[in-house]
Amino acid sequence: MLNDRHNMKTKNSKLALSTRAIHGNKLYAYKGPVSLPIYQTSTYRFESSDDAIRYAKGDPSVYVYTRYHNPTVHDVEEKLALMENAESAALFSSGMAAISTAIMAITKSGDEIISTPALYGGTYRFFRDELPKHDIKVSYVEPEQPDKISKLATSRTTIVYFETPTNPTLDIVDIKAIVEQTRKAEKKTDQKITVMIDNTFASIINQDPFAMGVDVVVESATKYLGGHSDIMAGVVIGKADYVKQVKGLAKHFGGCADPFAAYLLFRSLKTFELRVRKQNENAHALARALEKHPRVNCVLYPGLPSHPKHHLAKSQMSGFGGMVTIEVKPSKKLTPVEAAAKVCDTLTIAVNAMSLGGTETLVSIPVYSSHVFMKDEELEKHSVTPGMIRISVGVEGVEDLVADFKQALDEI
Ligand code: PLP
């Protein structure tokens, strides 16, 4: 079946891909079930000890233990790699398991990472709190100054890491400029530097980083790929050699995906493109409506002409995504964060909950969620303000959503 890879890589084929079963695994026949079987097992019965001997001699086709490999997980990995036009993918138990393993697989003590500062808080805290324990240094360059990458790079630089659109400020980082400057840095330092992007916010439907020269895509599959707020998963996608290294480290770190979560992810991928396209449409319409509301200071959405990097977004994204961030105006009675909380508590359709990418609209206050446990100067560096509300727009009727936000904002 995997010989069908080339046929499946046609233009605009993402939906076709996500509705097609890819039964690459020899453990069950291709003429078997339409749906993906769940191998809900931690271990595998050997036909005889010859299997154990073959495994001990390094035969990769012998299944032994689900932390190492699982047919359900494997098929989802194949599907994700196909969807992203990549050689290989590794599935994890969460986005953070994917990100931390992707990074640790190619860094050692003394190495350096260059990153843009506006990151998902969990990634930023991993960089801030964990990497220094391994003597791995992270330096930050503003997205407007990508030329600093080649200036900052040394012979110890192994990764250039970034996100776009950023969480929660929806700033746009110039992907081609980051890649170009990293290649310059490679020439200067005479060493391979991996360009790694967290593509969670845009997803492959809206942004194709590999087509712009990025080496590795990491993604929280808990969000748009999963899409129903019911699983935790993460994925690392890239060249086969690199992903093999990542999977090797995953055996030690242990962040393997659960087969049932992998099954649910597979199921979600069948509607991935439908969901994301509807979320794009709804987000755009909601952003336009909120821009006109007197209690809103500003609306951050890359699809709006008022967004400072709208043109860049247009040039590197095929859709503007389902995330909108607003900053509410404080009132005489309420401070900015109190006003934001009031809106979140008054909404009746949108749900006051963390996370994003699900079919239901979720709202969260970044200073209490994605960017909690950060000092004022760190928040300032991330351009996160107390009056911000991050909206993950769902697939509801957009008129209902606009009316819901209007009535909640009117309460400030
Ligand atoms: N990357 C981004 C952009 C996120 O928003 C998140 C979580 O919110 C993660 C990574 C981490 O993913 P997970 O929560 O699945 O570990």
Notable characteristics:
single chain, 412 residues, alpha/beta, Aspartate Aminotransferase, domain 2, Aspartate Aminotransferase, domain 1, 2 domains, seven-stranded mixed β-sheet, five-stranded mixed β-sheet, 16 helices, 38% helix, 14% strand, globular, disordered N terminus, binds pyridoxal-5'-phosphate
How would you describe what is shown here?
- This protein has 412 residues and is of the alpha/beta class.
- The chain folds into two domains: 3-269, Aspartate Aminotransferase, domain 2 (3-Layer(aba) Sandwich); 273-410, Aspartate Aminotransferase, domain 1.
- Helix content is 38%, strand content 14%.
- The protein has a seven-stranded mixed beta sheet with strand order 1-7-6-5-4-2-3, sandwiched between helices. It has a five-stranded mixed beta sheet with strand order 8-9-12-11-10.
- The model is unreliable at 1-29 (pLDDT under 50).
- Bound molecules: pyridoxal-5'-phosphate (PLP).
- Residues 94-96, 120, 122, 163, 167, 198, 200-201, 220, 222, 232, 234 line the site of pyridoxal-5'-phosphate (PLP).
Quick description:
With 412 residues, this protein is an alpha/beta fold. It has helices at 5-8, 14-19, 49-56, 71-83, 95-104, 121-130, 147-152, 175-189, 203-206, 240-253, 259-269, 272-291, 310-316, 336-346, 376-381, 398-410, and strands spanning 88-92, 112-115, 137-140, 157-163, 194-198, 216-220, 234-238, 296-300, 323-328, 351-352, 362-364, 388-392. The chain folds into 2 domains: 3-269, Type I PLP-dependent aspartate aminotransferase-like (Major domain) (Aspartate Aminotransferase, domain 2, 3-Layer(aba) Sandwich), CATH 3.40.640; 273-410, Aspartate Aminotransferase, domain 1 (Alpha-Beta Complex).
